[in-house]
Design brief:
Elements: E1 2-5, E2 10-11, E3 13-14, E4 22-24, E5 29-34, E6 61-67, E7 75-85, E8 88-93, E9 108-115, E10 118-121, E11 124-127, E12 131-136, E13 144-145, E14 149-150, E15 153-155, E16 166-170, E17 176-184, E18 201-210, E19 218-220, E20 224-231, H1 234-253, H2 257-267, E21 269-274, E22 280-287
Parallel strand pairs: 1-5, 4-6
Antiparallel strand pairs: 2-6, 3-13, 5-18, 6-17, 7-16, 7-18, 8-9, 9-10, 10-11, 12-15, 12-17, 14-15, 16-19, 19-20, 20-22, 21-22
């Protein structure tokens, strides 16, 4: 069955206490309207983030979606079938935001026009790479702001959360309570100024459930398995993503930890997803050719 979910109901915290706005079944497809990370409030370059901007209300996520038969201990499998972008996105600079935020003296807005498969920035025509920045389930304990990533997903800002990928999440609560938002037309690894090309979207998902338990989100593409970890300390995030990858390789190939660790070191790639959120996100890319 196919469903449509408008962006009228959004959340700013992922929580088991959020009331679902729709319930769907395993195998169903849902088209989800998402707002940009600023709730579609910045529409021209004369509008910028004010000094008193409340960062607790960024990254509105549409949902939550209750998935029937999703139980704690399951894996929720979310295949991204399509990401249809709006015709206009925004890049923001704000003092203190991003890697070089201390060098930014005042807020600035750049409007980016999108036409088909291309974005136009200054005099450049750049092919878009649509992706979803925020997607996740209700966390195990308490609530998590949509601006934060974690084992539940959330604001992972990972480029491979894109068309054709399947994103896998641990399920902590009945129904999983899936929400998503914060689409980008373009974003570089790291998202170093704090934003990509922030843009509304219509994102099409197909939902599946697997009766197995996982600790952290991972993505499957045609070419790779991608293990994601987020932590306040980036070295800790690196360790989590590396350990998840090594253990996966060890289990899949039925080889020792030591053999898998060496194989990871010579064939896999560690990448920063984003380094600007309260928790930093990294990913380890494991090519399917070694599995």
């Amino acid at each position: 069955m196919k469903h449509y979910l408008s962006n009228e109901k959004v959340i700013y915290d992922m929580s088991p206490n959020n009331e679902p706005v729709i319930d769907i079944n395993k195998g169903d497809t849902v088209v989800v309207e998402t707002k940009d990370c600023f709730s579609n409030k910045i529409n021209d370059e004369s509008t910028t983030l004010a000094d008193d901007f409340d960062f607790s209300v960024v990254n509105p996520a549409t949902g939550p979606i209750f998935i029937n038969d999703a139980e704690p201990g399951d894996t929720l499998k979310v295949r991204i079938e399509d990401i249809s972008l709006a015709e206009k996105g925004v890049i923001e600079l704000f003092p203190g935001l991003g890697v070089l935020g201390n060098s930014v003296k005042k807020a600035r807005t750049k409007i980016v026009h999108v036409d088909g498969n291309f974005a136009y920035i200054n005099n450049m025509k750049i092919k878009v790479t649509p992706m979803i920045g925020v997607i996740g389930v209700a966390p195990k304990d308490g609530s998590a702001p949509c601006g934060n990533p974690g084992p539940h997903g959330g604001n992972m800002d990972t480029l491979e959360v894109t068309i054709g990928s399947t994103v896998n999440f641990p399920v902590y609560h009945k129904g999983a309570l899936l929400s998503l938002g914060d689409a980008h037309a373009l974003m570089g690894n790291g998202e170093i100024c704090g934003t990509g090309v922030e843009i509304p979207s219509k994102t099409t998902l197909t939902i599946d459930i697997e009766k197995k338990s996982i600790n952290n989100p991972y993505i499957e593409t045609d070419e790779s398995y991608i293990f994601i970890a987020s932590h306040k300390n980036i070295e800790a995030a690196v360790e989590i993503a590396t350990r998840d990858s090594v253990m996966f390789i060890s289990e899949q190939k039925k080889i020792s930890f030591e053999e898998a660790y060496m194989l990871t070191s010579v064939t896999c790639n560690l990448v920063f997803s984003q380094v600007v959120n309260p928790l930093k996100t990294v990913r380890m890319i494991v090519p399917k050719t070694i599995i």
